[in-house]
Amino acid sequence: MSAIPRMTGRVLRSGLPGLVALLLGIVLFEFVQPLVIASFGGAQGLDMIMERIPPALQAFTRTRPEFLALSGLAGYLSLGFTHPLYIVLAGAAVIGFAARSLAGEMDRGIIQIPLSRPISRRAVYTSRVLGVGVICALLAIAGPLGMVAGMLYARPSGEFAYGHLGAVALNGLVLFWAIGGLSLWGSAAASTAGRVVAWAISLLVVSYFVDYFAGIWSPLESIQFLSLFDYYDPTQALVSGQASTSDVITLTIVGVVAALAGLMVFTRRDLPA
Amino acid sequence: MSSDAPAISTTNLTKRYGAVTALDGIDLVVPGGVTYGFLGPNGAGKTTTIRLLMGFVRPTSGAARIWGHDCWHDGVRARADLGFLVPADALYPDMTGYALLDYMAALSRKPPVLRPRLLEALELGQDALNRRLNTYSKGMKQKLALTAAIQTNPALLVLDEPTDGLDPLIQRSFESMLSDLRGSGSTIFMSSHDLAEVERTCERVAIISDGRIVAEETIDDLKRLHHRVAEVIFAGEPPAGLDRLAGIDVTGRDGNRVVLSLEGSVMPLLRFLADRDDVVDLLLSPPRLEDIFLGYYDTSANGLGKSQAIPVTAAIPKESIPR
Questions:
Q1: CATH topology assigned to domain B227-286
Q2: Interchain proximity A116–B103, CB inside 8 Å
């Protein structure tokens, strides 16, 4: 086995219990969504409830009652992929890995293990990028898998195309990749994992709320395009079965550019004492 | 590896952290096949030099080379056949001892040919190696880190405080192992606070103070160039004229006992004493590396370090560098 996948395997294994816990949390959260909808009487029961929800809370769902009425069960189920808890669980996994595997290892001196061997900094960094990619893929499929299990278990009334979950997974994958790329950039520049986590979570929260408030406060609309969540639309993906190509490309580019910026920083910086 | 290049060489190597100069233009040549001690008090620049050699930090100016390869720009080739002692507290705590050794050997891309011998010499047993590192004591982690550094029989070993945390018996066993490695042609570059260990292990030393090399010699030459202490006990009143002898200073008198500081040859003193019949005893202590080291540190701290410094380039015979 070459050095890069070996190093990726090592850093993934060192945080495995936490990663498994977060993935199980996501699976469980999405498993519960069909059960909740079934308990409200399916999509029709929820239509009546949604009409009574004030605009601020409607914005929180990142969709409108009339759209949900038209989109049916898929529209309601997609709320499980825009819920803050889902974002927090997925964000924690990808940000935690990026922070731990570079800044955390620099802080603890563990990064000296590969860097004292005939291994380049580029190879060490690439192994972490690969790790982010693996985690993003796992996060992207964990939610849809949980939802499929929940659907098979609860069988709520309404039409649902299981194949559309692929588009949700793709949209999730590129969102997590963008978050991961930005976190790796921060991790390459920082010297402690704590600082990276604080920075990345702040970015995520601001990004989430810019997108959220832009729906109810027009002055924010002009900067909505700066939010990562402006390019994340699992509702549309689950209803139509297609993720927006421009959204996928934008988030992919953000992740790639951020990861490359991190590479530039990491290959030029001094390791902390 | 470039066969005609020294194992380690630095040229005007300088490292500054903002206004702080950690390393101030050091020139160092470590020929292949020697065991080389790198001495200095805390904060003198030892660790910074080692970090520059490993490519962990970038020089502000100058260059560090291993076997002729620049440590920053060509780090992969510089570290191609190098063993580095990773600090004991910088190992993956969730790995077992065996897993860590396998991992580090795999990253070195060389088989761990010396592992069984090292495990035996350092008394690391199967039970310990099957346990996770978060159950290890500091000494056990140090043994494991040493095994990981040396197991592939690298051409160059860079060891920062190698016996820190080891008990005296294991220390001696490790020194014997180093001696064997040197015998097989390996180059060993080590820093240590244990000067007696350096004296037992190394052939050459460099002393660094305030980011500058203040001495670079073989240990034998260093001793020959420096003061030794002699104590002479006479039957009666000590004679006059001792302090007029070449290279001798009287540093203390206590009744019929005189303490002398000797520089250079001991012959003038022996001739002086041979002509007398009132000499009861002569105690001549060999110069210790510790005294030499402390001497450099004291003079350096007093701003005298530069005037005492031995030019490094002049101190290294060119013929000692293998071609």
A1: Alpha-Beta Plaits (3.30.70)
A2: no
